[in-house]
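@channel anyone free to eyeball this complex?
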Amino acid sequence: MNDRFEVRGILPENSLPEIPAGHNIGIIGPTMTGKQRIAIQMLATPYNSGEGILCITTNRPEEIYDVLRDHVDSLDRERVGIIDASGREGRELVDVSTETVSSPSDLTGISIGTAKLSRQLESQGVRGVRYGLISVSTLLQYLDSQTVFQFLHVFTKRIEETEGLGIFILDSDSHNPQVVNTITGQFDGIVQLRESENNDLEFRIRGFDQKTVPWQTLEQD
Amino acid sequence: MTDGTPPVILIAEDEESVAEGYELWLGHRYEIKLAFDGKEALEMIDESVDLVMLDRMMPKLSGEQVLAEIRKRNIDCRVAMVTAVDPDFDVIEMGFDAYITKPPDRQELIDTIESLLDRAEIDTELQEYHSLMARKGALLSQKAEDELDDSEEYRDLLERIDSKRAEVDANLGDMGCDIDFVGAVREIDDVDEGFEEIDRPPTEPSEKGEHGK
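replying in thread with the prediction:
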């Protein structure tokens, strides 16, 4: 098992090189600030180190898979699992293990899929699993915020106890600030994103037992 | 179940001597109801039952069929499967909350029952935890954190949050264990089907902090 997960090079100036095992991190910001790109990079970057990826998506699974593949040279399909919680009928073929649940609100189905896929990853001998939930905001469209909060409590606890890494996306402008703050309370740390007045993307890191880093520009490649 | 009366356990077991053996072990702790086949078990299940121990192989209706019917009727109770063969992953998919291998050891049986009864509390406890965290969330959307740190009320809220979280986590059980994890999520999921609307805590400051920033 890893005692920490490398996320080096994703945020500029080495501001977040690694995250301790068992931690859950929120990627939070308004729409169109690159949350998904950062989340996927954090899921996929270390791929060759023998870790596994388990991603719950409320988007089309092939979309996530394609983006993952863009970030990983040789995606070892045996070490990737996707839970399709899009609720969409008629699926295109994704050649990684996929579990499908009926809708984004099927939390029990999501948990069964998680248990199933994590067993599969375990049998592949992975050294730690990076979990992604893309995105919490979709769950909030289907369920009340209390239920989503409760689910996240159980889910983040699972990640903590299995010493994985949890990565969660939350759109800050789709919900009222109180809901965003309350949900954020389930994370050990967050990467906040925003667009500055001159349209630059900026980020800051909070939590992880470090001092709040001031807003910095996020380099775009 | 929270009103001081003992939890109600329905034991569905076709071998009478085995069923009575369980009753002997458990009767002083819980209120025990006995059913000797699957059909009888279904007739006896209602909202007063906190936990059902279902023998997997029973005449008339199997444990799996009884479970499916309980879930279909949306009855809020925990269901443990009692089985002579070591169960597979399908036990989790079927919707059992725990399994007990036959013949159970007395302490093992009580431990399993206790952890399921603890888990029955997490939905309520997580609601209480959520309402404290929502209050914190509302304050944070109105004031900066360092400003709040000076307030005694805020520090008091943080303390209550910490102790509530410890309480929740103690009852959650081992979330690294697949069946416990799925069972815990099912506890949360169940409420949503039925009476969630009237069940919301009225004190929750939802929507009000919306204009904070």
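from a first look: The longest helix of chain B spans residues 152-172.
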